[in-house]
What does this fold into?
Amino acid sequence: MSETAARLQNHNEEMVKCLNTLRQQRKALEERIATQEKQKAHLRKDIDKLQRALGEVEGSIADDTRKLNECSKRLTETEAGYQKVVDTLQLLLLSAKEKGKLPED
It folds into this structure.
């Protein structure tokens, strides 16, 4: 019977060691998860901040694009109007030169 008691004692000691090892592993994993959760929260905060900044930049780009389109339209209209003025002045100048000639007799 003492042999059985000795084996039981050995198994018990091994079981206690195994349980302690599992507890240590669990504690290490809990600590690692807690650290990762903190890192996740920090990253989420950074992502939110970057998304707000991205939204602001996108809004600014949209406003500037609208202004650019308006400016381009005005420029095109102004250039077209100026070209008409130049063409009209050229015709006026030709007309004035024609009328300024004396008839040859």
User: Anything to note?
Assistant: The first helix runs from residue 2 to 100. The chain has a mean pLDDT of 94.
